[in-house]
Write a structure and sequence with these properties.
- The complex is a heterodimer.
- Chain A is mainly beta.
- Chain A is 0% helix and 54% strand.
- In chain A, the strands form two sheets. In chain A, strands 2, 4, 5, 9, 10 and 11 form a six-stranded mixed sheet that branches. A five-stranded antiparallel sheet of chain A has the order 1-3-8-7-6, with no helix packed on it.
- In chain A, a hairpin with a 6-residue loop joins strand 4 and strand 5.
- Chain A is globular and about 45 Å long.
- Chain B is globular.
- The N and C termini of chain B lie far apart (36 Å).
- The chains are: A mainly beta, B mainly beta.
Chain lengths: 113, 110
């Protein structure tokens, strides 16, 4: 069962444009992470958000955790070709040693020069 | 500080052959995980370990076994490879909220 839905699935934009990708669920997560994966490599952690309504900024990337901790968004300002990659969100679900990450399928972003 | 390393990077197996994928981490993390990543299916958890000497099943454990004899190493074994196990395998270490990925092993079973 896919508990985390990411949209859009694919996005192709020109350098300098702004964009927002979304991660939605009906489940509540204790934390939510965003990762970026480049072709042939493993995902790299960008940020972890924990508190409902939390906003974190990483240079041109802004991450927001929904008030109810069920959804998140990633906004990129003035996208650059180096932002190209697969953006994955993952929510921490469960308790104790049964806590696991639930993964979205990702948004594949292409930024064209 | 190498982080998480995986060997081998690529492998081609014939149906029925066995192999072991090795994962090593130098960050002293208790938790380690094995995932497979397939187009349209995303990352799926195979097995995980919450500490040395412990292992647990994930979402898709069938056909795989694991061992965590040392804290820094987490081995994934395929006893009798099947074409359905063609995939990219990732090992991670860290916590549930912060996982650090290895570079992956691309496995093809013919």
């Amino acid at each position: 069962t896919q508990l985390l839905e990411q949209s859009p699935q694919f996005l192709s934009i020109q350098e300098g444009e702004n964009l927002t990708v979304y991660c939605n669920s009906s489940s509540v997560f204790s934390s939510l992470q965003w990762y970026r994966q480049e072709p042939g490599e493993g995902p790299v952690l960008l940020v972890t958000v924990v508190t409902g309504g939390e906003v974190k900024k990483l240079k041109r990337l802004t991450f927001q955790f929904g008030d109810a901790r069920k959804d998140s968004s990633l906004h990129i300002t003035a996208a650059q070709p180096g932002d190209t990659g697969l953006y994955l969100c993952a929510g921490a679900h469960g308790a104790g040693n049964n806590r696991k990450l639930i993964w979205g399928l990702g948004t594949s972003l292409a930024v064209n020069p | 500080n190498a982080g998480v390393t995986q060997t081998p990077k690529f492998r081609v197996l014939k149906t029925g052959q066995s192999m072991t994928l090795l994962c090593a981490q130098d960050m002293n993390h208790e938790y380690m995980y094995w995932y497979r990543q397939d187009p349209g299916m995303g990352l799926r958890l195979i097995h995980y370990s919450v500490g040395e000497g412990t292992t647990a099943k994930g979402e898709v454990p069938d056909g795989y076994n694991v061992s965590r004899l040392k804290k820094q190493n987490f081995l994934l074994g395929l006893e009798s490879a099947a074409p359905s196990q063609t995939s990219v395998y990732f090992c991670t270490s860290g916590t549930v909220g912060e996982q650090y990925f290895g570079p992956g092993t691309r496995l093809t079973v013919t």
